[in-house]
Amino acid sequence: MNGSIRFALGWLLVGIHPAVAAPVPKELRAGDLQRITGAWTLTKAHLGEADFDSAVGTKWTLGADGNALRERSNDTVGKATFKIDPGTGVKTFDWMTVEGNTFRGVYELDGDTFKVILKIEGGDRPRVCKPTEGAYFFEFRRAK
């Protein structure tokens, strides 16, 4: 390869690199809130790495305004608020109860599957969405 071709290829790669590595603009990431909004049915639940089967079947309804309802099979309804940040890396999800507790976590959204992991108390926010000691892990399917 002669020097002028290498020079041109080098400039081409330098020109492409910023476009490939640039963060996704916030307005393009904002779609997660619309995609999360709606009714979800809990299909898997873990406390740490242990199954938390008594919660399976719980319905969560997440509103675009950040308000949430949790309906259990025994007709109890819990109210809370949530906040997401799709970010440029880890997608954060915070759950705030009416009692004043805040559970910090992360989420994954893939079509009709929604996963959340929430740290039980203090400490660092989880970095991956899988059952972890000291955290609640939830997997939902969009309610039909």
Supply the CATH class. Mainly Beta
Shape label:
globular
- Count of helix runs: 3
Q: Largest sheet, described in full?
A: 8 strands, antiparallel, barrel
Provide the CATH architecture: Beta Barrel
**Number of spatially distinct domains:** 1
- Do you know the CATH topology? Lipocalin
**By helix and strand content, what is the structural category?**
alpha+beta
Oligomer: single chain
Average predicted confidence as pLDDT: 79
Termini separation: 59 Å
The counted number of beta strands is 9
Helix coverage percent: 10-25%
Lateral arrangement of strands in the main beta sheet: 1-3-4-5-6-7-8-9
Write down the Rg. 20 Å
Strand content bin: 35-45%
Low-confidence stretches are: 3-25
| Secondary-structure element order, N to C | HHHEEEEEEEEE
Could you explain how this protein is built, in words?
A hairpin with a 2-residue loop joins strand 7 (102-110) and strand 8. The chain is of the alpha+beta class. An eight-stranded antiparallel barrel has the order 1-3-4-5-6-7-8-9. The model is unreliable at 3-25 (pLDDT under 50). It has helices at 3-21, 26-29, 31-36; strands at residues 38-47, 50-51, 59-62, 67-71, 77-85, 92-97, 102-110, 113-119, 135-142. The chain has three helices and nine strands; from the N terminus they run αααβββββββββ. The protein has one domain: Lipocalin, CATH 2.40.128. The N and C termini lie far apart (59 Å).
